[in-house]
Amino acid sequence: MRSNSPANIAIICGSRREPSRVRALMEYVGEVLENKNIEYEVIDLKDIELPVFRTKNQNEWNDLTKEIVKKYLDADIYFIGSPVYFLGISGALKNLIDHTPWQEFQEKKRVAGIVMSGRNRQHNLVIDTQLRPVFVYLGVEVANKSVFAIEPDFGGDGFDLESEEVKSRIEEMVQETISLWERMIKNDK
Ligand SMILES: Cc1cc2nc3c(=O)[nH]c(=O)nc-3n(C[C@H](O)[C@H](O)[C@H](O)COP(=O)(O)O)c2cc1C
Questions:
Q1: What is the average pLDDT across 4-13?
Q2: Residues near ligand 1 with C-beta < 6 Å?
Q3: Which among 25, 8, 9 is positioned nearest to 167, based on CA atoms?
């Protein structure tokens, strides 16, 4: 996992807005990894015009879809971020997930940590009713510790992560996800 480790890590930002609170959260996930000298890739759906899912036949996908799905499949460890939009995950993230070639996906072990942001705490169960079950269904081990940040956790113009509590929750979630991966690899030996 350190720079000489074979684990591929992907940080997925499921918000297409700019500025975005979820992006600020995922940037902090990146900072935490960098402090541990761990390399990662970013899949920021803001920068990717992924067509809306139409077919499982990969021969019909355009080059961009093939490239992004490959990057997504290459990862062993995911840090997945999404805003709550109308009691669900973002359409952009759902669209990426819809492209999962699930038989191929289940060929290797993976772990994930989840980060979401909503207006207030009222809808924090979207993590445990939507995002976690999808990845568990796909055979991914998801860290118990997840992060839900609300609008008052951000300062500046409302998009700078200021809450020390959320930052420390992110640090704990990142550590738990990595430990989960390390245990999984050790048990395989
Ligand atoms: C279209 C839309 C729908 C939203 N729906 C909800 C919702 O159902 N529940 C909630 O708690 N917050 C809701 N919000 C607030 C966002 O989840 C919140 O502002 C979040 O921090 C936005 O993240 P972003 O800046 O990365 O897009 C909604 C915001 C938008 C733009």
A1: 85
A2: 15, 17, 20-22, 83-87, 117-120, 122-123, 151
A3: 25
Q: How many Cβ atoms are within 10 Å of 124's Cβ, its own excluded?
A: 18
> Read out DSSP for 106-143?
TTS--EEEEEEEESSGGGTTHIIIIIHHHHHHTT-EE-
- Taking only the tens place, the pLDDT of each residue in 38-56 is 999 999 999 999 999 999 9
Task: Give 159: exposed, middle or buried? Use CB within 10 Å, 0-12, 13-18, 19+.
Answer: middle
**Ligand 1 atom with the shortest distance to the CA of 122:** 11
pTM of the model: 0.96
Catalogue all structural domains in the chain, each as residue range(s) with its CATH number.
9-188 (3.40.50.360)
